[in-house]
Structure formats: C-alpha cells, structure tokens
Amino acid sequence: MMDRTRSVIEGLVKEGSFKWVLGGKDSDSQVHEEMGRTGSGRRKWFLELSPIANSVVQQCSKLLNIPMDELRHNFDSEASDSIKHPLKFGRNFLEYCCFQVLALVTQENGHLSDKNFRWLTYDMMRAWEFPQATSQPLLHVDSDNSVGKEAFCRIAPAIPAIADVVTCHDLFDVLTSSIGGRLTFSTYEKYLGGLEREIKAVKSQSESSLIFTPRAARKERIIEVDGTVTTQPVLQHVGVSTWPGRLILTDYALYFEPLRVVSYDKAKKYDLSEDLKQVVKPELTGPWGTRLFDKAVLYSSMSLPEPVIMEFPELTGHLRRDYWLSIIREILYVHRFIRKFQIEGVGCDEILSKAVLGILRIRAIEDVLRSLPSNCENLLMFNLSDQLPGGDLILEELANSLVTQESDRTSNKSTGSKMQSVSALSTLSQLGSLFAGESTAGHGTGLPIGEIVVGEMTSLERAVAESRSSYKKVEHAQATVDGAKVEGIDTNLAVMKELLFPVTELGSRLLSILSWDDPLKSALFCIMVAYIICRGWILRAFSVLLLFIAIFLLLTRIFSQGRPVTEVKVVAPPPKNTMEQLLAVQNAIAQFEEFIQDGNVILLKSRAVLLAILPQATDRVIIALVGVALFLVFVPVKLVVLLLFLEIFTRNSPPRKASTERWMRRLREWWFSIPAAPVVLEKATEEKKRK
Q: What is the model's pTM?
C-alpha cells in the first residue's frame, strides 16, 4: 500500500497533475477539462460539489488510485443516512476523500517539504469552506485567497505534524494575528517549512556529539537546548551559589551542564517523569538575592533539599523564560497524564510524540513571526488542558482515544489490514525524527479516521468545544473583574463599603432589635422566634428564607432582562499625598499589630487557666463546665435552644438591662484578674550555606 501510494505521488508530480494549483493553466475551461477527466479518460463531475471541491476530490481519487465513481459508491455504502443528506453531502463526501488521502500521504517521508502536499492540504481547507455547487460558482486558484478558522481546525488536525484537536484554534489565531484573521497560503507555507526544519533539528541535536546525549535505557530524545551562546547563558541558582551553563530538555528530564573554561561539567539531572511532587513556576531573581527581575523558573521536588532556580537573562521582557516555563511544564504534565491513565508501550510513545510536536510548532511559529508567541502555554496540549475549564474531561477523552487506536492496531494485525490512520508517532518517524518504536498506525473503520470522524464531532472534539465555550464565559467574567479593580487602599475600602451596604443595613437593624431600642418591635420579634423554636420549625423557617431569596432572584432576573447593567456608584475619597499614604499604612499596620497582641493575650490567659496558674479561676471554669454538661444531659435540646435564645436576646431588655450590666462587669473583672502565661523570646541561630 505504501509503495503504491509513493509511486502514485511520484507519477502525479511527473505528469503534472498538480498544474491546476501551480498556475499552469489560466482559463476556466482548461481547469474544468482537467478536473472532469478520470484516469480512463472519461469525464467525471459531481453536480453537488463546487468546482474547487470537485478538483480536490479528483486529486484524492488519483492519490488513492480509486476511480471517483467508486469513491462515491464506497461513501454511499458506508455512510449513514444523516451523513448522506443532500444538504450535508458535499462537505461530508469531501471530508471522506480528504481524510483517507491524508491518512496515506502523511506516512510518506518528507511530506511537509513537498510543495504539492502543501497546496493540496491548503486547497482541502478552501474546498471545505465552499463544498456545495451553489457556494462557489467559479474556480479561482490564487495564492492570495485565504482560509478561515473553522476550515483550518477541521482539516489541519488530520495531519498530526501541523495541528492537534486541542490547540488548533489558538494555533490559527497566532498564525493569523497580523493578517486579519484569515490564513493565507504564504503564511501557511512558511509555517510548514519552519515545522519541517524544527523536526530535522531535533534529530540533528540528538545525534550531535557536541550536546550531552542521555544514555538512559529509555532512550531520551533531546527537544530543546539553551545557553550555548555566550551572550545568552542560562544561570542556575542553588542557595547562594550561581553558575552559568547550558540547559537541555528531553522528553523525560531536564539537564543543566555547568560551564567550565572550555567545556561543560557533568550534567545535573532533574527527572520530570517520576512522581516526585515537582513544582515548576515563575520566579523573581536579582543580584545578591534581591527580587527584581521576573526572568526565572523555579523547580522543586521532594528529591531536592532546596529549590533550584533557572534564570534566562534578556534585555527586554521575559518571553524566553515563558517559553521554557511552558515546555518544561508540558513534559511534566504529559508524564502526569501517563501515570494517571497508566499508559504504556506504543501509547506512551504516541502521547509523548504529541507533546513534542506541540513544542516544535512553537519553534516553527517563531520562524514565521520572528519572535516567540506571547501565549506559548495555549499552543501546548497539556498546558492548555490544565487551564481550560473541564480540561480533565479533555484528557479523559484523549486517553480513551489512545485505547481505541491501540485496539484498532491490534485488530489490523489480526485481520491483515494495511489501511493506516494518522498518528503523531508515525508522523515524527516518517519526517526523520529519532522517535523509535512501533508505529501506532491503525485502521479507521470506514468513516472514522484517526482522531477525526467524517461528518461528525468525535468525543474529544466535543469535549474541547464544550471546554472552550465555558472558557469564553470565564474570560468574559475575568474581564469584568479586571475592570472592577481599583487602586488605593482608601478607594478599595470605599467600594467595599458601598457593596456591603445592604448587609450592614440589615445588621444595623438586627442590632437595633437586639438592643431593644424599640421595645415593641423587639418583643414581637422575640415572641415570633420563640414560637418557631417551640414548634420545632427552625429548619422550615430556614427553608422559607431560602425560598424567599430564590423568588427575589427570579423576579430580579425577569424584570432585569433587556436593561443595562446597573453600575455601582462610589464616591471616591479625596486623594492623598505620599506622606499621608505612608501614615495611613503605618496606622493600619499598628492596628493590625494591636489586634494580634490582643489575640495572643487571649491565648496566653486560656493557657494559664488550663495550667491552673490561678487556681481560683480554674476552679470557677471547672464548676461552669460541669454545670453546663449536666444541663445539656437532662434538658431537652429544644428547651436548650429556646433558653439560649432568650438569654442572648433579652439581655438588653428593660427588665434585665441592669442585671446584665452587673454580670458583664463581674465577668470582665474576673478575666482581667487572670495572669498571662509567661513567654520567653530566644534568638534563632541560622547557619548560612556557603558553597
């Protein structure tokens, strides 16, 4: 099958079958004539398809070495009625042809460098946008034409090297950020060329004797190297020591080689594949331990006595650090995924290949944009799944797809099937990278091919779509949060006071009732609550309160539809100069310190009571605890709650106010008479590590 496909492709190139995309013919009649003939010379034209869709189907027919009418017959026999519906036939039949071709062509060596392959896949996207005969009346083959996001995200993930289902939307946004949101062929071609070079660079790095090559039994592959240029070293900080050197990332670990005078010292290994509770996060660095520059990555694990900081100095920004932070996390996350779902063998190699391809795409984009993208983490499958809401569901579907591919591969071996589907591992192998291991080529059972299903969304695609839909809502909500943030302590306090006004107003009214400012209202409230407690209606009263809130929210929702959002109006406090702001901060710190001191006094006095430093106070506490315990044993719970409510609520009532003040005074006098437990402060002796 592979030899036949290779010979067919070579034959197409020799006989000039791609002239229609290379501009060899100018008139529409010549293009239609070329499109309308099959290998036997018979004219073939699907009236349901647009000219460019017919053209793409013809090329698919030649590459598959299957007549166009036979392709139509196979589609009609394999597809369900919903997929063959007249309104969906054009696009679904086009997908059926394209996905079969891509499953074969992507197994060929160096397909990314083939100009014909680039044009064919690009025109597949164009045809997908205009599949029906009524959607594009004339065929115009022009390099200035562009492709939309929906078409790119449908066709590109069928080619593992170009895109994947999870990150294809963000990849398209980055590629088209400077060209109006539509992908042109020139940009697409530059991206594929850069991707091809990066895949070859991975192989050359792994084979190079100048770069440290891990000799582990698992045959690690070198993905990225930094610090080889003397003007851009990588600095490793461990404790108070700092060393320049070279940083190497493989698909299993991170290595740092300290720089000597003319060579590199033995590499220090930080394993990313083991469950060592690793933490990788951005970090600030600076001279003599100061935290000034946001240009470093902190790595810590349970196998290290202290964290290690990798600094990436650069004159402006921190894109270099962000790139390394993202790719280190990608390897860390992919191994967490492997451990969580217990993926082994070919499946492990396949999922590692997906992660590696994501990293290589970022480097290819750097070739196109001449700079690293600012959101590297959004272009990496496992980084993005960690951020998206419902990302865990995406990973579950990804694991299920690996199981399905393994099942299909095993089935093909037993049945002798030679039809191959798309896999990241086989793609890297064919493109020349040192990713050894058995290919995960499997057989699509007709319409399903790889991770794509003709005319439908796979479970993985649905999980990604739902997650992105939720993420848009989160982004919108976060934008409102960012817009609501204000600067200044006084201003934030004013906003908080305004927002809490309903709560404070309700609290002040309850406090007024509790203080018996209006004896009639307080008495009615007391009688009502006491009656609820006696009848055992506490839970019912709470339920009624919740229902009242729900009804209030429902009415608010109904009457607020179509109205503009009510803004919170806050009277800004008068501006303060620098000295006034410093004094306000100093006063706030002093008040906070006093609050902590009062808390410590309470804890020390409680400790004194527990240790019986003042026996009389301890005796009173013992008697009170015993009395309360006996009271709770012999008195029903309902009566306990009623008496507790009446005790608290009627303290300030006219009959009890005088006695309450007297008892509170005695309680304070007793509390003030308790001494605090002694505290001794000792100076800590800290030994600084010097290396």
A: 0.76
